[in-house]
Amino acid sequence: MGTTTGEKSRRLPTGVAGLDGLLHGGLLRGALYLVNGGPGTGKTVLCSQVVFHRAAAGENVLYVSSFSESHARLLSNLESFSFFDRSLVQSHITLLSSISALESGGLESLLSMLSQAVRTHRASLLVIDSLGPISELASSPFAYRKFLRELATLLSLVGCTTLLITSKPQGPENLELSVADGIIELDLRMRNMRQTRELAVRKFRGSPHLGGQHIFEIGDSGLTVYPRRETLVLPREPDVTAAHQKSRFGIPGLDDMLRGGVPPASVTALLGAPGSGKTLLGLHLLAEGLRTGQRCLYFGFYETPSRLLCKAEGVGLRLREHVETGRLEVQWRQPTEQFLDSIAAQLVEGVQRQKAQRLVIDGMDGLLEAAAYPERFTTFFTALSNELRALQVTTTISMETSFGGPHLDLAPVGLSAGVDNIVFMRYVELRSQLHRLISILKVRESDYDPSLREFYITSRGLEVADSSESVEAVFGQLAGPYGSGPVGRPGPKPSLPGSAPKNSGEDA
Where is each KaiC domain found (predicted)? Predict the structure, then answer.
């Protein structure tokens, strides 16, 4: 979404990675916001991150504590974060305590102190940590509401943005809700023994925002928010007229079946049982792209870079030299304790940084394992696929199926809607020997050869037969007295929306 110069001047960027995207540019100047959440959810870290970001931009900031905890201890707790800069505390950040004002004159005395401090320091941002002790000292709900309204009016007139930290659960009895211009809620949840941090913008007057729950993490740099990919609006459509030439795998038999390759800027699913050759097929796509001068990215969950490059060299694919020149980047992510949107952010950032024209995601199971909420995987994957198309990158993603059975169900992971092309690799057993078969199930907006062909993994890589004659011979023998095996017994053509995906990192 575009932002005009006037709109930018109204905004106060937070400096929290991902949060300004949710807020369409940042907080509104002069507005009052509640930062709500239980103990340990990250409220103080979030507000402190905004404080130091605005101070680093040359603005004056007030941080008012209503607890008996010393400011020295507060700063000590923040020192481990990269955004912390002690020199800013002396020059642009003023730390105050509300305790003496509250004890001497109650809410009126506190309001007077805040008014004078904001004007004296010409503060652009005020943080009050927290509202709990202040509300407890109010003589009545009416007095507390009056204090909040007068504070909001005062700060709006001088253009000072305010963050009020509170740990109260939301409800109609909470007087802060009606006064606040916006509510940012932080939550800490346990799901299947896994801890997730989630952020939601419950209210944001005067501006659109991305609603719903969004994952965030707390690391050395503070909070990083990962907007749900399905909430992001793509700014552009793929320029399909820019490149009509198809993307070849560099395997003559397969490229022939695809009538020259897959369409550019498309997403191709490589389906097959463990060891069927999915990873090698993806590496062929990269090798062919590198041969023609394209930049490439491998994004995997199971093969470490050194192991992957050794595997490629074992079948004659010289990828290591392209890694050394920077034309190929190999990324490895362990799927454990990661989240879908953080993985997607790393993937998209890698594509943009590498300026990749070809991408291999190896594989779908790594994404599935990262899904804290499996029920949203279909919409997530569809959104990610659309984003990759918009980035003009030709993508393959591998997905495991079971060894046997002629039917293939793509509905459980929403694959059929998220991909443009589907290549299916499977086994057939004949006389105690496994034969590898490959077929094309789908190519969007393009003709293709739907026949089955046999393929081989050799020291020169994958080789696909020129015709279906060897497959017909295998099936003919399977129909005779020597045919055997539950593995891939021939049957009807695999149906699109049988086998649930398995988790495994092994792939020939």
Answer: 10-239, 245-478
The architecture in CATH of the region 252-478 reads: 3-Layer(aba) Sandwich (3.40)
196 Ramachandran zone, left/alpha/beta (phi>0; psi -120 to 50): beta
* Nearest to 184, CA basis, from 41, 78, 10: 41
**Nearest alpha carbon to residue 219 among 380, 479, 42, 37:** 42
Mean pLDDT of 85-102: 94
Determine which of 232-246, 261-275, 384-398 has the lowest per-residue pLDDT on average: 232-246
Residues 386/237, Cβ–Cβ less than 8 Å: no
DSSP string, 62-97: EEEE-SSS-HHHHHHHHTTSTT--HHHHHHTEEEEE
- Given a contact cutoff of 8 angstroms between Cβ atoms, the answer to whether 187 and 62 are in contact is no
Q: Are 71 and 95 in contact (CB under 8 A)?
A: yes
Half-sphere exposure of 426 (CA within 13 A, CB side): 27
Domain extent listing, the chain: 5-227, 252-478
pLDDT in tens, 166-199: 987 654 457 788 899 999 999 999 887 889 999 9
Q: Which of the pair, 228 or 504, is modelled with greater confidence?
A: 228
- Evaluated on CA atoms 345, 350, 356, 359, the torsion sign reads negative
CA distance 314 to 252: 20
CATH number of 5-227: 3.40.50.300
- Judge whether 405 and 276 are in contact, CB under 8 Å: no
Instruction: Write down the mean pLDDT value for the chain.
Output: 88
**Gap between the terminal Cα atoms of the chain:** 43
CB contact at 8 A, 384 and 268 = no
Structure tokens at 18: 């991902």
Instruction: Please tell me whether the peptide bond between 314 and the residue prior to it is cis, using omega within 30 degrees of 0.
Output: no
* Per-position DSSP letters for 123-184, written without gaps between them: EEEEEEE-HHHHHHH-SSHHHHHHHHHHHHHHHHHTT-EEEEEE-PPP-TT-THHHH-SEEE
User: How does pLDDT run across 16-25, given as a tens digit for each residue?
Assistant: 999 999 999 9
Contact at 8 Å (CB) between 314 and 307?
no
Band the pLDDT of 111: cuts 50, 70, 90: very high
3-state helix, strand, coil in the chain (%, to 5): 35, 25, 40
Q: What is the mean pLDDT of residues 402-419?
A: 63
Tally of helices (H runs) and strands (E runs) in the chain = 18, 20
